[in-house]
Amino acid sequence: MFLSALPIYPIAGIREIEGKLIPSARPPLMERAGRAAAEDAVRLIMDRPGPILIACGPGNNGGDGFVMARQLTQAGRDVQVAFTSEVSNLPAEAAKAYADYLAAGGHLVSDLPAAPAQGWALVVDALFGIGLKRRIEGRCAGWIQTLNAQPSPRMALDVPSGLDADTGLPLGTTFRATHTTTFISLKPGLLTNDGPDYCGDINVQRLEIDAPAWLPAAGHAVTPALFHGQLRPRPRNSHKGLYGDAGILGGNAGMVGAALLAGRSAFWLGTGRVYVGLLDPNGPAVDFAHPELMLRQAARLPERLSALAVGPGLGTDMNAATQLAAALGREVPLVLDADALNLIASDATLRTRLAARQVPSILTPHPAEAGRLLGIGTEAVQADRLQAALDIAARHRALVVLKGCGSIVASPDGRWFINGSGHPGMASAGMGDVLTGLVVGLLAQGWPAESALIAAVHLHGAAADRLAREGIGPIGLSASETIDAARGVFNGWLIEAQQGPHRDGTRDARPLITLGNH
């Protein structure tokens, strides 16, 4: 079945859980973390020749590294430990781990040793943990640069040193891991912004801790388990009227293609009927590539729709603003994208009408659009993507997806989700229009708004991932190509929901996040 949605905790949440557990945990959490990291290291390098280098810092992350070194030494592995500080600077538990490592026959050096002739089997970053909020400079920055230059696998403990575990922003020189073993739970910064580029594959070692039992999680990593209940087979006795009427409002002069992309993706995801209302007075009367779509002028969209999307190719002229204002007054689930968001950002009356809606509203901004909605710059949005998404959701009383690396779905009630599917090839024209169509298509078919948004975001990335595995992209992938792939992935999910995994044992998403045994 589908992998359960893993909880995500910001640093404050992890600290709260640790504070409740550390006084009574047996074995201690540091012992558990170091042991789990050692086991991950053995699985990672297998029979790769050469010694293991562990770089330990002056805090508890360094203590985890000392426990790991002791475990590996006792298992007969060749381990070299470089320590940046003095034992007198270590916290009590880390100092004990240091002493236990030496008592087990370990030794350490105060500078990074030169790589052996055959290279390191593995280099391990145990320099700084999740609490780091300053730039890494000087000697430690030099160590990280040297570690990053090694051709061996590079493993980070808990979080790559230099990466903000809350925001995913690198703080100066940052360790670039091929694998990250993180403890207790996922952290937001591992999954969004620059985090995925620095973390590599992530293994969550829960350390025999059921984190949600100690602190309910507001955030989760997106998997199909979150919308599994909506993946139901259709009855054989079906007709198109059972599967909704979706409307797309957009397609101003020179931008008709955006509205067509949204309409096609909604239709190919199984919507019963799709109406595309175009603002271009000279727009086409038929989509000859997909004549199933019903094209008409924007003012002639049907009054009775199951869901409506406004924004793909909308423009910002007076007609666009008038059509958007009318759409905000409809008692129908609404998806707002692109220029619909820009118009709302610039018009207080539209913002008031949006916040007053009593039926679901979904906003799908990229970082620049998010900045306009919040009245801040794009850089400020990216500096704390999670908070920006939550602020937009609360301010506009809407569900929000802040698009980008690790797209963040936020709810007005403060819950949030981070999506890991997709790849850089999706940074191309029209991808947002396809996502809008996927969302409105699921809404039109009666999906709850939150499930529709989470599923569409995950499906969009999973479709691109499937195409990349088939040699279509990542570079040069077009938005149009993802529409057919999304249909295939979605039908695969329906089969798996009813019958279990595919017969060949494969899944649609590469497992970049795994769970350890502890």
Automatic annotation (TrEMBL):
<comment type="similarity">
    <text>In the C-terminal section; belongs to the NnrD/CARKD family.</text>
</comment>
<feature type="binding site">
    <location>
        <position position="158"/>
    </location>
    <ligand>
        <name>(6S)-NADPHX</name>
    </ligand>
</feature>
<feature type="binding site">
    <location>
        <position position="61"/>
    </location>
    <ligand>
        <name>K(+)</name>
    </ligand>
</feature>
<feature type="binding site">
    <location>
        <begin position="60"/>
        <end position="64"/>
    </location>
    <ligand>
        <name>(6S)-NADPHX</name>
    </ligand>
</feature>
<keyword id="KW-0479">Metal-binding</keyword>
<feature type="binding site">
    <location>
        <position position="432"/>
    </location>
    <ligand>
        <name>AMP</name>
    </ligand>
</feature>
<comment type="similarity">
    <text>In the N-terminal section; belongs to the NnrE/AIBP family.</text>
</comment>
<dbReference type="InterPro" id="IPR000631">
    <property type="entry name" value="CARKD"/>
</dbReference>
<feature type="domain" description="YjeF N-terminal">
    <location>
        <begin position="14"/>
        <end position="215"/>
    </location>
</feature>
<dbReference type="GO" id="GO:0005524">
    <property type="term" value="F:ATP binding"/>
</dbReference>
<keyword id="KW-0456">Lyase</keyword>
<feature type="binding site">
    <location>
        <position position="161"/>
    </location>
    <ligand>
        <name>K(+)</name>
    </ligand>
</feature>
<feature type="domain" description="YjeF C-terminal">
    <location>
        <begin position="223"/>
        <end position="493"/>
    </location>
</feature>
<dbReference type="GO" id="GO:0110051">
    <property type="term" value="P:metabolite repair"/>
</dbReference>
<dbReference type="GO" id="GO:0046496">
    <property type="term" value="P:nicotinamide nucleotide metabolic process"/>
</dbReference>
<keyword id="KW-0808">Transferase</keyword>
<comment type="function">
    <text>Catalyzes the epimerization of the S- and R-forms of NAD(P)HX, a damaged form of NAD(P)H that is a result of enzymatic or heat-dependent hydration. This is a prerequisite for the S-specific NAD(P)H-hydrate dehydratase to allow the repair of both epimers of NAD(P)HX.</text>
</comment>
<dbReference type="InterPro" id="IPR029056">
    <property type="entry name" value="Ribokinase-like"/>
</dbReference>
<dbReference type="InterPro" id="IPR017953">
    <property type="entry name" value="Carbohydrate_kinase_pred_CS"/>
</dbReference>
<dbReference type="InterPro" id="IPR030677">
    <property type="entry name" value="Nnr"/>
</dbReference>
<dbReference type="GO" id="GO:0052856">
    <property type="term" value="F:NAD(P)HX epimerase activity"/>
</dbReference>
<feature type="binding site">
    <location>
        <position position="433"/>
    </location>
    <ligand>
        <name>(6S)-NADPHX</name>
    </ligand>
</feature>
<dbReference type="InterPro" id="IPR004443">
    <property type="entry name" value="YjeF_N_dom"/>
</dbReference>
<dbReference type="GO" id="GO:0046872">
    <property type="term" value="F:metal ion binding"/>
</dbReference>
<keyword id="KW-0067">ATP-binding</keyword>
<keyword id="KW-0520">NAD</keyword>
<keyword id="KW-0413">Isomerase</keyword>
<protein>
    <recommendedName>
        <fullName>Bifunctional NAD(P)H-hydrate repair enzyme</fullName>
        <ecNumber>4.2.1.136</ecNumber>
        <ecNumber>5.1.99.6</ecNumber>
    </recommendedName>
</protein>
<feature type="binding site">
    <location>
        <begin position="403"/>
        <end position="407"/>
    </location>
    <ligand>
        <name>AMP</name>
    </ligand>
</feature>
<feature type="binding site">
    <location>
        <position position="258"/>
    </location>
    <ligand>
        <name>(6S)-NADPHX</name>
    </ligand>
</feature>
<keyword id="KW-0547">Nucleotide-binding</keyword>
<dbReference type="Pfam" id="PF03853">
    <property type="entry name" value="YjeF_N"/>
</dbReference>
<dbReference type="GO" id="GO:0016301">
    <property type="term" value="F:kinase activity"/>
</dbReference>
<feature type="binding site">
    <location>
        <position position="313"/>
    </location>
    <ligand>
        <name>(6S)-NADPHX</name>
    </ligand>
</feature>
<keyword id="KW-0521">NADP</keyword>
<feature type="binding site">
    <location>
        <position position="366"/>
    </location>
    <ligand>
        <name>(6S)-NADPHX</name>
    </ligand>
</feature>
<comment type="function">
    <text>Catalyzes the dehydration of the S-form of NAD(P)HX at the expense of ADP, which is converted to AMP. Together with NAD(P)HX epimerase, which catalyzes the epimerization of the S- and R-forms, the enzyme allows the repair of both epimers of NAD(P)HX, a damaged form of NAD(P)H that is a result of enzymatic or heat-dependent hydration.</text>
</comment>
<comment type="subunit">
    <text>Homotetramer.</text>
</comment>
<dbReference type="GO" id="GO:0052855">
    <property type="term" value="F:ADP-dependent NAD(P)H-hydrate dehydratase activity"/>
</dbReference>
<dbReference type="Pfam" id="PF01256">
    <property type="entry name" value="Carb_kinase"/>
</dbReference>
<keyword id="KW-0418">Kinase</keyword>
<keyword id="KW-0630">Potassium</keyword>
